[in-house]
Design a protein that fits this description.
It holds the Pfam family Sensor. It comes from Actinocorallia libanotica. InterPro entries: HATPase_C_sf (IPR036890), HATPase_dom (IPR003594), Put_sensor_dom (IPR025828), Sensor_HK_TwoCompSys (IPR050482), Sig_transdc_His_kin_sub3_dim/P (IPR011712). GO terms for molecular function: kinase activity. By secondary structure, the protein is of the alpha+beta class. The protein folds into three domains: about 1-195, no CATH class; about 195-280; about 285-400, Histidine kinase-like ATPase, C-terminal domain (Heat Shock Protein 90). It contains 13 helices and seven strands. Helix 1 (about 1-35) packs across helix 7 (about 155-180), helix 2 (about 45-70) packs across helix 4 (about 95-105) and helix 5 (about 110-130) runs antiparallel to helix 7.
């Protein structure tokens, strides 16, 4: 196993040294040329191409390290590209993993020199010294005269024997020296070409939270359908039966009791319908735009709606809908507003919903208030709640939600 590891590490230095120097030359050349030409139209795309190339070369370096060094370095997260040409340029120029790959390859030449020197001194000179007697016998490296060591004269044969022993020592030390000289390189591989551990952990937590939020939205939709198609239908059937019962009995206490039961059942159906709408309005199944249109027709305000958004994740659509519903209710109930405007738009991967009203203003986030609940609801998906509500109005509240579809 040690011999196999030594062979793979030696092969990695030989192949990796050539690959790393060529990658460093490419990276430095493209970035330098892109910087010089940054005043022209081609400079920025050239810089972006250099960073993209460095990131992909980093992938090749990770695969080489995995094959020969056994370093299983996790791949960095994929780059999120903004739409459009300039969005792609911005995404590539601000890619932290592209810049880290650049730093790795620019540090390759000094590492390659140290690694090459280690291989030459240990493996190469060790092999030359070990075969010194053979070289003398073949006349390749003949030595005349003797050496003097501590006053004792050494003839060529004892001297060649010492050289061979020195070569054997160098070859014995060679795998250890190569392994040692690769330790800084391994550290740079992990630090610069792999994902940052906190970032990877945060990404895992974000994905887990998004999964939980989406599953919660799906569960709420199932509960809404079960209540709408199950309990609500049975309650309506019960009301009809109570109505028939009331009509079939003569005047008296029994008929009066049936009437009260009918009224109670009707009240329960109304409350159940309100509960269903509060869990997941059925109109949301048609999309956020349709849901906001229906909502604007039901609130006690003259509401202008401008919403043209595609279908998004159900959890995001649900949060946006309930935020608008709460804000319009607050505007009518607490703000004394007569008119409101709702604007919903998609900017890249960001859903922005703005609710403005002509009320008295002064809206603030207080513990236990409706706005505090909205802030917590929005924060569940890494969104933001922005409030602009000076005393005397008007009030403008913006909800920003990540809308990766």
């Amino acid at each position: 196993m040690r011999g196999e590891r030594a062979g793979k590490e030696l092969a990695y230095i030989l192949f990796g040294m050539v690959f790393g120097v060529l990658a460093a030359a490419f990276t430095a050349g493209v970035l330098l040329l892109g910087t010089v030409l940054s005043v022209t139209a081609i400079g920025v795309p050239l810089l972006a191409a250099g960073l993209l190339g460095a990131r992909r070369l980093g992938g090749a370096q990770r695969r080489l390290a995995a094959a020969l060094l056994g370093e299983r370095i996790e791949q960095p997260p994929p780059r999120r590209e903004l739409p459009g040409f300039y969005g792609r340029m911005q995404s590539r120029l601000t890619d932290p993993y592209g810049w880290r790959a650049v730093a790795f390859f620019l540090l390759q030449p000094p590492q390659a020199l140290i690694q090459a020197a280690t291989v030459i001194v240990t493996w190469c000179w060790g092999a030359v010294a070990l075969t010194f007697p053979i070289q003398q016998a073949l006349g390749w490296n003949r030595v005349e005269g003797g050496w003097t060591l501590a006053g004792f004269a050494l003839e060529p044969f004892p001297r060649t024997l010492l050289v061979s022993l020195a070569g054997l020592c160098l070859l014995w030390l060679a795998p250890k020296a190569v392994h040692l000289v690769l330790l800084p390189h391994r550290l740079l591989l992990r630090l610069l070409l792999g994902p940052r551990r906190p970032a990877a952990r945060i990404r895992d937590l974000e994905e887990s939270r998004a999964l939980v939020v989406d599953e919660s939205a799906a569960v709420l939709r199932r509960i809404e359908r079960d209540l709408h198609d199950g309990a609500q239908v049975r309650m309506v059937s019960l009301i009809m039966q109570l109505t028939l019962l009331r009509e079939s009995v003569p005047e008296g206490s029994a008929r009066e009791l049936a009437g009260k039961a009918q009224e109670t059942a009707s009240l329960a159906v109304r409350e159940l319908r309100e509960l269903v709408r509060g869990i997941h309005p059925p109109v949301l199944d048609q999309g956020l735009e349709a849901a906001l249109t229906a909502l604007a027709d039901t609130v006690p305000l003259r509401t202008t709606l401008d919403a043209a958004v595609p279908r998004l994740r159900p959890a995001v659509e649900s949060i946006a809908y309930f935020c608008v519903a709460e804000l319009l209710t607050n505007a009518a109930k607490h703000g004394g507003a007569d008119e409101a405007r709702v604007d919903a738009s998609l900017d890249g991967d960001l859903l922005r919903v703005e609710v403005a009203d002509d009320g008295r203003g002064g809206a603030t986030v207080l513990p236990g208030s409706g706005l505090a609940g909205l802030r917590d609801r929005v924060g569940a998906v890494d969104g933001r709640l922005l409030i602009h509500s000076p005393a005397g109005g008007p009030t403008r509240i913006t909800v920003e939600l990540p809308a990766d579809r």
